[in-house]
């Protein structure tokens, strides 16, 4: 279940993904399989080759891609999520979703 994002943010992420850009979307999330995590960052791109290359550069395996029909993406959780958000200087995601350690 996703929550904590605006329709405009989701629309912008979808627009970028469709254009073949690497796009980031972080939102609050709950899944009982992962009780220690409260958010997820979806990194999407409709250009699968580009998404695979991006994943390789960031230590992600192509097998981890969610092949959603229109919005293929990686789901980032935990330490890897924080690492990549910091690498791409997405501090607004880190602050907004309380991912920074105090």
Q: Which helices and strands, and how do they pair?
A:
Layout lengths: L1 E2 L3 H12 L4 E7 L9 E6 L3 H10 L15 E4 L1 H10 L3 H6 L6
Overall morphology: globular
Helix content: 25-40%
Count of helix runs: 4
The helix-and-strand class reads: alpha+beta
From the alpha-carbon coordinates, what is the Rg to the nearest angstrom? 13 Å
* Beta-strand segment tally: 4
Protein name: YneQ
Organism: Aeribacillus composti
Please explain how this structure is put together.
The chain is of the alpha+beta class. Helix content is 37%, strand content 19%. The chain has four helices and four strands. The protein has helices at residues 7-18, 48-57, 78-87, 91-96, and strands spanning 2-3, 23-29, 39-44, 73-76. It has a four-stranded antiparallel sheet with strand order 1-2-3-4. The radius of gyration is 13 Å and the shape is globular. The termini are far apart.
Short description:
This protein is of the alpha+beta class and 102 residues long. The protein is built from 4 helices and 4 strands, in the order βαββαβαα. The chain has helices at residues 7-18, 48-57, 78-87, 91-96, and strands spanning 2-3, 23-29, 39-44, 73-76.
């Amino acid at each position: 279940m996703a929550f904590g994002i605006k329709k405009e943010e989701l629309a912008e992420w979808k627009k970028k993904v469709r254009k073949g850009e690497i796009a980031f979307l972080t939102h609050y999330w709950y899944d009982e399989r992962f009780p220690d995590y409260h958010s997820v960052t979806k990194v999407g791109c409709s250009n699968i080759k580009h998404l695979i290359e991006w994943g390789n550069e960031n230590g992600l395996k192509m097998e981890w891609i969610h092949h959603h029909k229109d919005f293929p993406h990686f789901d980032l959780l935990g330490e890897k999520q924080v690492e990549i958000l910091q690498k791409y200087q997405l501090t607004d995601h880190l602050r907004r979703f309380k991912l920074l350690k105090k």
